[in-house]
Amino acid sequence: MKVCGFSFIRNAVKYSFPVVESVKSILPVCDKFIMSVGESEDNTLDLIQSIDSDKLEIIHSVWDDRLRKGGEVLAIETNKAFDAIPEEYDWAFYVQADEIVHEKFLDTIREAMERYQDQPKVEGLLFEYLHFFGSFRYIANSRSWYRKEVRVVRNDKNIRSFRDAQGFRKSGKQLKVKALDAFVYHYGWVKHPRIMRNKALNNRRYWHPDENVENKTFKQFHQEQFDFTKVDSIQEFDGDHPAVIKDLIEKMNWDIKLDINKKQLNLRNKLLHWYEKQTGKRLFEYKNYTLIK
Fold first, then answer.
1. What are the tens digits of pLDDT across the range 84-105?
2. Residue 29: which residues within 8 A CB-CB, separation 6 or more?
3. Helix, strand, coil % over all residues of the chain, rounded to 5
4. 175 CB contacts (<8 Å, ≥6 apart)?
5. Of the candidates 185, 183, 158, 184, which has an alpha carbon nearest to the alpha carbon of residue 172?
6. Could you give the CA distance from residue 112 to residue 114 in angstroms, rounded to a whole number?
7. What is the pTM of this model?
8. How far is CA 249 from the centre of its chain?
């Protein structure tokens, strides 16, 4: 069995992506890793080249900044990295530049890839998610945050990144997947408030033309710093972080204190949130996959 990791990145330094830690977190289960580096306004390429591993292969990309609908440019960049994976690899392990896999799950992931390698009906592996918010202390836990997503897929080029690169489809159809007892730790909302504001405003450009990005609809991003208190629901994180990110945690240079008891939800979402916490079930949940029992 051969496994190739893949990802893409642009402006990693400018927007404080933990991309080095992201790559390193899954390298132990990968025989190769393809990183597509887009033209950047900082030293992103130097940062990626600092990863000391002969498994790493860097390809270069120019993003099409004219694509301003539905985040589709993110899927296109994902596909560029995926398409660079040689045919000899069985599985492709996707990790976005702000996602990290805890080392305690690596054995589970490798065992699953080995178990299902010769079962072609299994087209991917489904991971659970923790979404950190504001700091490394808090997790966002409302319905607005996806709970599961596919991150390991067959090395089948009929599989394509879907919509804004959150998941995948094969020939337009949902992948048939097996669920894993393994988590992806998503740190995309853990940044200094000033950097978070800049990143959030920039990300709007992948969905909206300039005139919409700059108008009052997005006035919350025109403050000097991002206001983390506007989150709908959070809880404290009582676990341990992946080893690869602990240096970044120690270097954290901002302090955010959020109220875990404050819920900014409308009545419908309050009821759905309560039901989910009582039962563990999320009603009307969007699922971009077909789960194989």
1. 999 999 999 999 999 999 999 9
2. 3, 93, 106, 109, 110, 113
3. 30, 25, 45
4. 123, 124, 150, 153, 159, 167, 168, 169, 289, 290
5. 158
6. 5
7. 0.94
8. 19
